[in-house]
Amino acid sequence: MGNVVAGKFPGTVRLQVDPPPAEGYIAGQKIRGAVYCTSTKSLDAGVPLNVDAFLVGKERSLVKYEEIEYYYESFINAEGRRVREQRARTVTRYRYAERNVVAMAIHLADISTGVKQGVQYKFPFQVTLPQDLPSSMHCQEHSHVYRNYGHYDYRDWAQIGYDGNGYCSVSYDIHAELKGKGLFSTQRTNQGIKVLAAPLPEQALPHYVPPVSRDINFCCCFDKGKITFGAKIDDTRIGQGENASIDFAVRNQSEVRIERVEASIVEHCTWYAGGRQNDVIREISKAMFRPNPRWDAVTKSTRATLEGDHDEYNRTLRMIHDAVEVGDNSSYVNAPLQCLQTYQGALVTTRHRIKIKVHMDGFFVNAPEVNIPMRIGTRHDILGKDKPGKIDVSFTEVPNELEKPTPEDEEDGDIVIAPGVFVGESQAVLGGKDIKQVKEDEKMGDDGDIVIPPLQEVLDPTLDNLIYELKFAVSPASIVRHYLSLLEWREKVFSVLAPPQYAHILKSCEIEFDQPEIATAIAPVIRNGNFTCDYVIAAVGVVNDWLRISMVQKLIPFTRDLAQNKQKIKNKLTEWENVCTEKDIQNEINRQQGPPQGPPQGQFNQGPPPQVQFNEGPPPGQFNQGPPQGQFNQGPPPGQFNQGQGPPQGQGPPQGQYNQGPPQGQFNQGQGPPQGQYNQGPPQGQ
Asked: What's the whole-model pTM score?
């Protein structure tokens, strides 16, 4: 074999990844690929080579900002003297930062037996994406959203190009690396992949918007009364391309008519670097509610009457609750396919909210509004196998499949296929607190070695370690689920939690939409299932106001003392929260107490409950006493049955007769029903 001088590997290194589905790779799926190496020269057996692949996901941010810079300028004044004055100017500066979202090392081979000239070496691999990865995204300052026939669309940021403004991104790449020890410089190639976050839970997370009362003022100072409005969102977690259904109700107690009511989705993306931040706020969808008579203005006299009625507010709460429950006035807003997904990272945060705004008739009249947090993610049915264009992830790990040559391989001539390498998500390093910062006019270099952080060491089962993990987790809910699966953590941490500690865990979860899931996951483990109302009260006290109703509804099924201590929970809730949860609490109490006890043995032979006197029969022993002597010998008045008053044979009494029963005291008179009627009972089903 010929000698090779030090330098670049004499050949090519190529990376090939199986094409993703149209939507992109979904977190939790498997990615297959291969690294191809071809040498133009033969290498001796003494030349060691390492072949590796890496999956790296990063969140990046570039913050653009302006500041005042002071400087001194010398010049000659009118008197001919040189003077030096301080001046100010506005300068543009930048700060850059990046942080790992995920890092996985895929070691493919160590080659020490030599490389043949012209032979292609294939190193296949399969890697499983962690289920908690956020979606790929990019947002840029001043990126445009334009309306086209009522629909909102995003201009592709790649077509706009970087124009000197700030931006943020979450991106994923697979890198291939051929590295020699002391002889060759490292040769790399990479390929970007698009990742979608795991589908949202199918279970809905509804939200009742507490009724808000807003004063209506003309020209900021003339009082025109007030309006009270509320709403219900059927599900605050929706996928891209899905609709959020909103039920709206309002009580107008002002002298100004309501002109229109709008509902919209607002997207707010913020990114950070070097203590600075940029953000983009944009409206991505809008809908209208239809007018109804409750939008009309009231007269001054009616307004005065309503304001003097102390029970009017409670009636308004009930009216709004009933109206949103039956869907008296519904509309929906759509989350566009091109919108960003909700995400909360160390450098990048994307939030969404539904804004409901009430526009009053006339000029110079304020327009009250309310905002409700929502989460936009990957739609829950994206993995449906029975739907066209959806993804099937049911294939299994079969090593022989990776090691079989593909048609492309056969076209390339001689090829050597190495054993396939499989890497599971347990080898992934997720998140982390290490953030690289770069100051002005510097660039984050990518020429160095790819550094994969070591796998996290096993932590001792303590509450402090759990809180520490939650602060830097990509998905706090996944962290809790992981530790709940470990017996030592369940026994030493979760099962002995007191209410304040339980609340501390929820408060440490910065992703609000994960808090109900974490709360319900821990509840059955606490005190070996002896979950009490005190834990519900502690949880309600630390979550955001918009989650309080949902938290109560989700936690009360785990309580063991709800019937005895329900008033403790009600005392911590507002009037509106009590209105929205009273039915859930009562239904849960009924469920825990079990179904009503069945009737005593033989009761069905005696007929329905006591209020139906005819079916109940006479008092015990009355038939043994019999009617007064001779009464049956007398019989009915002559001709009574011939007159048709009795029921025809087999028809039974007229409808409702059994419920009415005989006249009061009739059985005491000894008439009673005909012989054997007690054993027959009422007609079937009556």
From this structure: 0.71
